[in-house]
Amino acid sequence: MLGPLLSLGKRGYEIYVTHMFVVLGVFSLFVAIGRPVSGVPGLFVCVVLISGVLGEIVARFCSEPINRILRERWGDGASKLGWAVERK
Questions:
Q1: 8 has pLDDT over 70
Q2: pTM for this one?
Q3: Is 62 domain-assigned?
């Protein structure tokens, strides 16, 4: 039941980085149709859903492949997480 919310948390950074593109685009459409106050909840839901989808796309096709390459080249391999600094 909490799967979609957990997915948003898992992709939080990618959503954070890309959400303003969605906000500006959806808000432009909102203004173009006359800014109906009754549409604000729908605007919010659309922004969250589209931002989540965009965050997933960015993670799947950009962040994760780059992370995998970096781990293989400088880390412990693609299957293990690395540390940014040397641990003692």
A1: yes
A2: 0.74
A3: yes
